[in-house]
Amino acid sequence: MEIDRNVADTYIAENYFHRKFEKSDGKSVFVSQLVCGDVGCVVWDSAIVMFHFIEKNKSFFSGKKVIDLGSGTGLIGIQAAACGADAVITDLEEFISLMELNIKNNLHIISGTIEARCLRWGSDVSDLSSPDILLVSDCLYYDESVLPLAKTINDLSNENTIVYLSYEIRESEAKKKIVKDFFNIISKTFTVQDVPKHLLDEEFCCDDIKMLKMTKIKFS
Ligand SMILES: C[S@@+](CC[C@H](N)C(=O)[O-])C[C@H]1O[C@@H](n2cnc3c(N)ncnc32)[C@H](O)[C@@H]1O
Q1: 69 C-alpha vs ligand 1 centroid, how far in Å?
Q2: Can you give the pLDDT of all 220 residues of the chain as single tens digits?
Q3: How far apart are CA 100 and CA 110, in angstroms?
Q4: Calpha distance 199→91 (Å, rounded)
Q5: pTM for this one?
Q6: From the CA of 39, how far away is ligand 1's center (Å)?
């Protein structure tokens, strides 16, 4: 499937909903979403906030090893690779073809490297080395994932890894509990801080999307 880069910012064709995310240099990242499918087949608002955070802080990413967990369409990792990172975008097996399609859509703007890999949270990660930066956007949304996600973040990080984690504050008590449980676990091994406001894009940030920076606690 070829995407048409000259039409409107969004359009639907062949069961795909195509979206364009503009960068500051006049280039764009083109993402194909599936019209029907599980949560990973569309870009979530937390990812849009992170996309513009990466754009505003390109120098953090250039030349760095980046892993994106629960990448879905791949937008965030593709953006990191377009800013010069060597990125691995990961998700469940069913999203590999969508991530590969979106890599193909954007090869012309990637100045680093990128590959899509299957990575189920909680599984063995010994075939991946610790990245400089781990990206996690909108992955705190169901109870069973809390422990395995925290384990994967912990297993992949070394003391120099910076984890950027974004999530949407949702109103239901069940969703609030998931977030609380996750931070109760992760804060045993990570320092968790808000990303300072001046590093976020003024237009693409809001109070109900949190952007956090986490680093592993150095136990002596
Ligand atoms: C709400 S989507 C977020 C997608 C993308 N990061 C974004 O912000 O647009 C959550 C993603 O986590 C993935 N996911 C859920 N459970 C997972 C698991 N156990 N292992 C790996 N990925 C998982 C889903 O397939 C989906 O792509």
Answers
A1: 7
A2: 555 555 545 555 568 888 999 999 999 999 998 877 787 788 999 999 999 999 999 999 999 999 999 999 999 999 999 999 999 999 999 999 999 999 999 999 999 999 999 999 999 999 999 999 999 999 999 999 999 999 999 999 999 999 999 999 998 999 999 999 999 999 999 999 999 999 999 999 889 999 999 999 998 7
A3: 14
A4: 27
A5: 0.94
A6: 7
Name every protein residue with a CB atom under 6 angstroms from any ligand 1 atom.
39-40, 43-44, 46-47, 70-72, 91-92, 95, 120-121, 137-139, 141, 145, 148
CA of 140 to the centre of ligand 1 (A): 9
- 85: in domain: yes
Q: Does some domain include residue 30?
A: no
Please give the Cα distance from 93 to 22 (Å, whole number): 28
C-alpha distance from residue 177 to each of 12, 29, 113, 166, 168 (Å): 36, 34, 37, 16, 13
Q: What is the CATH number of the domain that holds 169?
A: 3.40.50.150
Instruction: Name the residue of 91, 97, 147, 211 whose CB sits within 8 Å of the most ligand 1 atoms, as the mutation to test its pocket.
Output: 91
Domain count, the chain: 1
**Strand order in 28-34's β-sheet?**
10-13, 16-22, 28-34
Ligand 1 atom index nearest CA of 120: 20
Count of helices and strands (H, E) across the chain: 6, 10
From the CA of 119, give the closest atom in ligand 1. 21
Range of the domain at 142: 40-216
Q: Is residue 161 part of a domain?
A: yes
17 within some domain: no
